[in-house]
């Protein structure tokens, strides 16, 4: 009997706590959405700000046999959680028309609302070598430009 009574009181207590007034969920959801958007904007601003400090590089990191990254790219991959971006650049090196270019420019443009992106690889003279639509990404910035030359992937400010 004690167990039944405890169970009944316990259930009643939590039922009364979880009871919400009509419209209360919407306010809570809007508040959470607003906080999430503010956090995403804050992250974008922090990353952009921190990327501006990468001028030149102090250390190189060998990622693949023919791909080395700089401090700035390592920071970007870690902070924006986009190691896939390095993989994408490396995968383009298997294409003959891309591989033969000694200087390559990679531009990623992201629609933050749909979380879709477009990667364009060019030779730096507006001659497009490869384009790819990325159907889903969590990349936090609206865009980023990267250079690839002499087997090194780097930020424009590190060139």
Describe this structure in words.
With 159 residues, this protein is an alpha+beta fold. The protein folds into 2 domains: 2-50; 52-158, Nuclear Transport Factor 2, Chain: A (Roll), CATH 3.10.450. Helices cover 43% and strands 25% of the residues. It is built from 5 helices and 7 strands, in the order H-H-E-E-H-H-H-E-E-E-E-E. It has helices at residues 2-18, 24-51, 71-79, 83-92, 96-99; strands spanning 61-64, 67-69, 103-111, 116-122, 128-134, 143-149, 152-154. It has a 7-stranded mixed β-sheet. Helix 3 (71-79) crosses helix 4. The longest helix is centred in the N-terminal third of the chain and has 28 residues, at 24-51. It is globular, with a radius of gyration of 24 Å. Mean pLDDT is 86; it is low at 1-22.
Task: Write the SSE topology.
Layout: H1 2-18, H2 24-51, E1 61-64, E2 67-69, H3 71-79, H4 83-92, H5 96-99, E3 103-111, E4 116-122, E5 128-134, E6 143-149, E7 152-154
Parallel strand pairs: 2-7
Antiparallel strand pairs: 1-2, 3-4, 3-6, 4-5, 6-7
Helix pairs in contact: 3-4
Keywords:
159 residues; alpha+beta; Nuclear Transport Factor 2, Chain: A; 2 domains; seven-stranded mixed beta sheet; 5 helices; 7 strands; disordered N terminus
- Please count the beta strands (DSSP E, at least 2 residues each): 7
The general outline is: globular
Order of helices and strands: HHEEHHHEEEEE
Number of domains: 2
- Overall structural class, as computed from helix and strand content, comes to alpha+beta
Helix content: 40-55%
Q: What's the end-to-end separation, in Å?
A: 77 Å
Low-confidence regions: 1-22
What Rg is obtained from the alpha carbons, in whole angstroms? 24 Å
Count of individual helical segments: 5
Strand content: 25-35%
CATH class of the largest domain: Alpha Beta
CATH topology (fold) name of the largest domain:
Nuclear Transport Factor 2, Chain: A
Q: Strands across the major sheet, in which order?
A: 1-2-7-6-3-4-5
CATH architecture of the largest domain: Roll
- Rounded mean pLDDT is 86
What about the largest sheet? 7 strands, mixed
């Amino acid at each position: 009997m004690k167990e039944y009574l405890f169970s009944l009181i316990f259930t009643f207590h939590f039922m009364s706590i979880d009871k919400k007034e009509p419209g209360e969920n919407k306010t809570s959801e809007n508040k959470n959405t607003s906080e999430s958007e503010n956090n995403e904007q804050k992250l974008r601003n922090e990353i952009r700000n921190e990327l501006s400090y990468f001028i030149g590089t102090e250390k190189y990191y060998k990622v693949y046999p023919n791909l080395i990254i700089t401090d700035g790219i390592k920071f970007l991959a870690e902070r924006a959680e986009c190691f896939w971006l390095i993989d994408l650049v490396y995968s383009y090196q298997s294409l003959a028309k891309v591989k033969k270019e000694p200087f390559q420019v990679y531009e990623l443009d992201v629609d933050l609302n749909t979380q879709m992106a477009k990667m364009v690889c060019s030779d730096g003279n507006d001659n497009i070598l490869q384009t790819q639509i990325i159907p889903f990404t969590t990349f936090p910035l609206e865009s980023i430009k990267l250079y690839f030359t002499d087997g090194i992937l780097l930020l424009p400010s590190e060139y």
